[in-house]
Amino acid sequence: MSSTPEVEAYVAALPDATRPRFEQLLALVRECTGDGFTEALRYGVPTLRREGRNVLHVGGFAAHVAVYPLPDTTADPGLAAAMAPYVAGKGTLRFPHAQPLPEAVVRRVVGALVGR
Predict the structure, then answer these.
(1) CA distance 14 to 31
(2) In this structure, what DSSP letter does residue 57 have?
(3) By the 8 A CB rule, do 59 and 97 touch?
(4) What residue ranges of the chain have pLDDT lower than 70?
(5) What are phi and psi of 69, to 5 degrees?
């Protein structure tokens, strides 16, 4: 999947302190989604879409990077437990810059959102 000019502009506009962390998250999300996805800017943040539908959003902020929405964890209580330290609000996962990015959690979340 290739980036769009909108997404590239979003990344370029991030503060220097946020950009590397966001790029790490976005690269991981791209790796986990594979073929059939496109990128767009929706709700002001990069969004991965499939068949014209928003599947997940990622954002970069001063203190954290984020993934939206939360996946359904009914069938995977272990995923709910893994996500718990990062849940912020009703449908957001926040990964603070002060902590290493939990790549295994991100992979599981993205997998659940894309149906893998």
Answers:
(1) 21
(2) E
(3) no
(4) 1-2, 116
(5) -85, 180
Return the structure tokens found at 89: 């609000």
Classify 60 as helix, strand or coil: strand
Tell me how far apart the alpha carbons of residues 88 and 94 are, in angstroms, rounded to a whole number.
6
Q: What domains can you pick out in the chain, each with its CATH number?
A: 5-114 (3.90.1150.200)
Angle, CA 44 vertex, CA 16 and CA 52 arms, to 5°:
125
| DSSP 8-state class, residue 50 | E
User: Distance between CA 60 and CA 67 in Å, rounded?
Assistant: 9
| Amino acid letter, residue 65 | V
Q: Provide the token pair at 12.
A: 């370029």
